[in-house]
Write a structure and sequence with these properties.
Structural class: alpha+beta
Enzyme class: transferase
Radius of gyration: 61 Å
Subcellular location: Membrane
Number of helices: 17
EC number: 2.7.13.3
Number of strands: 17
CATH architecture of the largest domain: 2-Layer Sandwich
Shape: rod-shaped
Main location: membrane
Protein name: histidine kinase
Strand order of the largest sheet: 2-1-5-4-3
CATH superfamily of the largest domain: PAS domain
Length: about 625
């Protein structure tokens, strides 16, 4: 159990860790993407701002250079002008300085190699036309910022350059600034921003991980552990409820669900125990078999039949329990209810021989039907078997028969007492005759003694035959011989009830069964007829061949049976005698058992105040033999 719990908790930790990794990974990806977007946007804005500042600074520097150069030109200090341009060209942030005339020819340059060239670009022409200073990066050299400042013609300059109207611009000052240092600074700033963004991302991830683990992961792990505990049967497991957030609401809902589940399982267990108690109360063995031949349920009677414990029965194959086999029974040798169910041939009734673990054989009557068993995980098509132990039934039936015979003992004692009294008197008279030498008189009295003794022997022999257990194998029973012998025992009860018997049996009529069973059947039905006739009457006992059946009818003129009681008269221990005497309620139960044993049937018709008719049918062996011979 500890290993299972450890494995379960390891699985839970792995799942929770996987959830945590996915959530943190997703959050990290989102933060990184947002940081990259923020870095790109911020870097773009920064570069734009830097470029604008560079352009503004270049324009301001070009204005300062313009003023210096204009001062030198007004003094006509050409060597000084060349020196200033050369000095400007050697500044670290300036790559080139040019002074162009209006025809765009370079008059002065630093480095000097740029002099005498023509610098004709769209940017210079636009500045010349607009007369507005500008600073833009060169399209083909993005690391060079070119500042262009037109030099306007003023009054002081007109002596050399002519009127302003004709020559509005004296020339153009072009300064190329190197952007390398500024770009390096920009890249450095971008790297700093990138590291700062990464630091913020990592800090956010750490904080998110801590918050996520504290507020989501750990509570979810507790909920999952609680779910696993419920699945393992720990229905009393509950979760701690802290706070008022969604996790607390979920934990409270889990606890309510667990409480309802525990209550439902309690009711289900009680129902299962009740069901087990009900099937345990059934005297026949009951077992439920799954499609894999294994026993899923069994009652106490079947456990007793198997000779095992309840735990030893559940889960065992039915063929092992019933036939001591290691594989399913061949359907050519044994009727298998599980195989019959698969072929759609249930319900069925049959007789089988079951073997106990010690090899002891037991004759059983088996009734099988289909059953859908709803269990954990779904429903299963099963077979339910009712197994009646015929050997045990035979023992119980014999005990019931003997108890019924005991009720006849008093009447039989009267029937025997009268012949014995007569014999005693006849013996005394015969002795007197012999003493007086009257041999003919003594001989006559001895003949009468013999008749009384034969009568007594007939009664006692009938009682002995009635008390014998029924034979296991059927024999041909002569109905016209057995019925009168059975009625002879009831002569005392007939006189007491003021009843007479009318017997009409077809000669030579037979059936396959047991002599003692037929005696017991007739005795019980005729005795019931006597009890039903409070003012006396006639009991008609008739037997005829009717097609393929032998029909035995016992009809009385008693008070009848109420329609509501007709369905209960064959129940064991149910009794309701019309004469008020107490009965044990076993007579008709024995009758039905006898009729069922020999494949017969019984029908009852009764009218209150007029009487009752029992019609018993057995298969006629003589009629069926004649059909077979044809």
């Amino acid at each position: 159990m500890a290993g299972q719990v450890s494995t379960t908790m390891t699985g839970i930790s792995r799942r929770v860790g996987g959830l945590q990794r996915r959530m943190v990974g997703t959050l990290a990806m989102v933060l990184l993407i947002l940081s990259l977007i923020f870095l790109v946007v911020l870097s773009g804005l920064y570069r734009t701002r830097i470029t604008a500042e560079q352009e503004r600074a270049a324009i301001q520097l070009s204005a300062l250079f313009h003023a210096t150069l204009e001062n030198a030109m007004l003094k006509r200090d050409l060597p000084g002008l060349a020196a200033i341009i050369s000095a400007l060209g050697h500044e670290p942030d300036i790559s080139a300085v040019r002074v162009l005339n209006p025809e765009l020819e370079v008059r002065f340059a630093s480095p000097p190699a740029l002099a005498s060239e023509v610098l004709d670009t769209e940017q210079i022409r636009r500045a010349l036309a607009d007369r507005i200073p500008s600073a833009k990066a060169l399209p083909d050299q993005p690391d060079i910022l070119r500042a262009i400042r037109p030099v306007p013609n003023r009054a002081a300059c007109q002596s050399c350059h002519g009127p302003v109207e004709e020559h509005p611009v004296n020339g153009i000052l072009v300064i190329d600034f190197a952007k390398g240092e500024l770009q390096a600074e920009s890249r450095k700033t971008a790297v700093v921003l990138a590291f700062a963004g990464l630091a913020v991302t990592l800090a956010s991830l750490a904080a998110s991980w801590w918050v996520l683990r504290r507020t989501v992961i750990n509570p979810v792990a507790r909920i999952e552990a609680g779910t696993r505990a419920l699945a393992e049967g720990h229905l009393d497991h509950r979760l701690p409820v802290t706070g008022q957030d969604e996790i607390a609401t979920l934990s409270a809902g889990f606890n309510r669900m667990a409480a309802r589940l525990q209550e439902a399982m309690g009711r289900l267990d009680a129902a299962g125990q009740t069901l087990q108690s009900v099937i345990d109360a059934i005297p026949d063995g009951i077992r439920v078999i799954g499609p894999d031949y294994r026993v899923l349920m069994a009652n106490a009677a079947y456990v007793a039949q198997s000779g095992l414990s309840h735990a030893g029965v559940i889960g065992q194959p039915c063929y092992k329990l019933s036939h001591q086999r290691s594989s399913p029974c061949p359907d050519t040798l044994v009727i298998c209810p599980v195989a019959e169910a698969a072929n759609g041939r249930l319900p069925l009734n049959c007789r089988q021989i079951h073997k106990a673990p010690g090899g002891e054989e037991r004759h059983v009557e088996l009734a099988a039907a289909t059953l859908v068993l709803v269990r954990e995980g779904g429903s299963t098509a099963c077979v339910v078997e009712a197994i009646r132990d015929l050997d045990q039934q035979a023992r119980l039936s014999q005990e019931q028969r003997l108890s019924e015979i005991g009720l006849l003992a008093a009447g039989l004692a009267h029937e025997i007492h009268n012949p014995l009294s007569s014999i005693s008197l006849l013996v005394d008279a015969a002795q007197s005759d012999l003493g007086a030498g009257d041999n003919p008189g003594a001989a006559g009295r001895l003949r009468m003694i013999g008749e009384e003794m034969r009568r007594t022997l007939t009664l006692t022999n009938s009682l002995m035959l009635l008390s014998m257990p029924p034979s296991e194998e059927p024999i041909l029973v002569e109905i016209d011989r057995i019925v009168p012998e059975a009625l002879a025992i009831l002569s005392f009860q007939a006189r007491q009830a003021g009843a007479k018997e009318v017997v009409d049996i077809q000669p030579g009529l037979r059936f396959l069964g047991s002599e003692s069973d037929l005696r017991m059947l007739v005795t019980n039905l005729v005795l019931n007829a006597f009890h039903a006739m409070l003012d006396g009457g006639t009991v008609h006992i008739t037997a005829r061949s009717d097609g393929r059946d032998v029909v035995l009818v016992i009809a009385d003129e008693g008070i009848g049976i109420a329609p509501s009681d007709l369905t209960r008269i064959f129940l064991p221990f149910w009794t309701r005698r019309a004469d008020g005497t107490s009965g044990r309620g076993l007579g008709l139960a024995i009758v039905q058992s006898i009729i069922t044993r020999w494949n017969g049937s019984v029908a009852v018709e009764s009218t209150l105040g007029q009487g009752t008719v029992f019609t018993i049918r057995f298969p006629d062996p003589d009629a069926r033999q004649e059909e077979g011979s044809r």
